[in-house]
Amino acid sequence: MTRPELWPRRTERLELRLPTEADLDAVLTWRNLPEVNRWLLRTDVEPAVYRAMWLDGRADPLDHHVVAVAGAAVVGTLSLQVSDGMGQGHDSPARESEGSLGYLLDPAHHGRGYATEMVRAALDLAFGELGLHRVTAGCFAANVASWRVMEKAGMRREQHGVRDSWHAELGWVDGYTYAVLADEPR
Fold first, then answer.
1. Which domains does the chain have, with CATH numbers?
2. Backbone angles phi and psi of 44, in degrees to 5
3. In which region does residue 136 sit, left (phi positive, over 0), alpha (psi from -120 to 50) or beta (all else)?
4. Confidence of residue 56 (pLDDT cuts 50, 70, 90)
């Protein structure tokens, strides 16, 4: 069962909360726009499937999907998926020790620092209440805005994959993987 006690969370300007049907309706007004899909691995989504994924995902305590709200506007989405890190032994410290981060911002709200604020909040949760050891995130190398967010939030570039990612318009392109450890300064 999900851990509702973790939500909502507040940052300086945002409320991060579990989504309502109305929140998802708001997200779907911009989620499938070409300027949003340009840098996503999963491009157009079918609205009913998208809603079900977000609402049914609440049953998984390792899957944290929330919306970011500024005032009355849903400005973005944030996900933190907890998984096992690499390690030996069934009951090793690697169990449920790693998080994979994803974020998406309404283009109408670009350039205001909301994505960085969302990522910092996710890292605070990951290394605070969830007690994770490591958090990673990835992007296409040409998605400068995304990797700048990760760097501003204190993540470091760990990998530059050469033509390791397929982009529908650009073909094989480079990808970046970023990470940060719990004991590293951010």
1. 4-138 (3.40.630.30)
2. -50, 135
3. beta
4. confident
